[in-house]
Amino acid sequence: MPRPVERAFTGARRGTSPLTSYAAVVRIFVARLAGTPVFDPAGDKVGRIRDVVVALRPNDPPRVHGLVVEVQPRRRVFLPITRIRSIEADAVIFTGAINLRRFEKHTTESLVIGELLDLAVEVNGERATVLDLAMEQAKGGEWLVTKVAVLRGAGRGLRRRRGETLIVDWADVAGVGAVQTDQGAAGLLAAFEETRPADLANALRHLPDKRRAEVAAALDDERLADVLEELPERDQIGILSRLDAERASDVLAAMDPDDAADLLQDLPPAQAEALIARMEPREAAPVLRLLPYEENTAGGMMTSRPIVLPPHATVAEALAEIRRQDITPAVAAQVYVARPPVETPTGKYLGVAHFQRLLREPPSSLLGAAIDNSVDPIRPDLPLREVTSYLAIYNLVAVAVVDELGRLVGAVTVDDVLDHLLPADWRERDEHATGAPPIDAAGRPEVSGGA
């Protein structure tokens, strides 16, 4: 794939802006800018680039209006291209103020990453797929999309057949404005390949329904499961409902059991039962065990897949489990020790071995010698308020949950508690913001004269 900024900056004098020194030859490939940090002139990071806003024109190259920048807390705002001072491969620097009102796309505008990548077009009469678009600064100072990276002679969709990658002039491309029933999503996903699931989920929320469905269809089951866990309830249901039943059940199986159980409880009962019936019994079992618990109890928010080992396991084995990439930091903070079987519900629960304690023990020593049983486990019916107090009192990031027989059935982590303490619509709070004051170049709220 092309680099974000082509070799236009070579030889720039120290202390000069690349865009000022070489404005005529700077070519920036938009998709490669996704996730690039945005800084003010003082060097403080304000946010990250999520897209580029352009206006398509019938007989001329698209005009670039500005950048979509994601600022905390996960709000997308608009940064005019006229405020950009320089664009490097790993940083964009702006000047002036940035308005914190939520970005809203005008009907005459298009998003390069969200809407134009993966389009089927024609290049000199041959079918091709858009991989990326490049923008350049014209002599008059405005920014235009002048080049298009395309894949010619290849199949559509995520698994493309081999083809020829070309960079062509915008004037040689036809069909960009046409409505397409199946656009694919390989280019968009490549732009977000290195992002966290929460960031991709936020990007999905801002796409049209059709484009969102295309992206969901192109994601593999594990990645889509991770993304669904970060979406609001209505978006989860919307995406899951567009999948065929077989795929939907596979995605549910790839989700954490507690998140899958929460989603199933939000679905119509008939649909939930049909999806559970399609899941493999071993995948459905941990989800089914969580469904009877009330939502705001320890049982309703716990994960049924903590790290569980028997007392005769070694410290080295415990550390190997903690190092697994798919384990979240809160779950990896401690290993739960129980008699076999070690799948929840386990045999008799013995205690917990904290990560810090494991680091101090010889790797060959037995896990049973590193058990801390000074903090009692909690019961599944303990209300949210008491679970929160328990974690706070003992400065815990997680706590074991045991049933009436003393078996470990799961663990509540601090992120589970936060999910339930926050308002139900916390993931989409920025959608309700009616406006916010602009901030100056140093990231402070901009104040009108006399204030």
Q: Care to describe what's here?
A:
It comes from Sphaerisporangium album. GO terms for molecular function: magnesium ion transmembrane transporter activity. Keywords: CBS domain. One of its GO terms (cellular component) is membrane. The chain is of the alpha+beta class. It has three domains: about 200 residues, no CATH class; about 70 residues, MgtE N-terminal fold (Alpha Horseshoe); about 120 residues, Roll (CBS-domain). The strands form five sheets. Strands 2, 3, 4, 5, 6, 7 and 9 form a seven-stranded mixed β-sheet that branches. Strands 1, 10, 11, 12, 13 and 14 form a six-stranded antiparallel β-sheet that branches. A three-stranded mixed β-sheet has the order 15-16-17. Helix 13 links the parallel strand 15 and strand 16. It is elongated and about 75 Å long. The chain starts with 17 loop residues before the first helix and ends in a 12-residue tail after the last strand.
Question: What's a concise summary of this model?
Answer:
Helices cover 28% and strands 23% of the residues. The protein has 451 residues and is of the alpha+beta class.
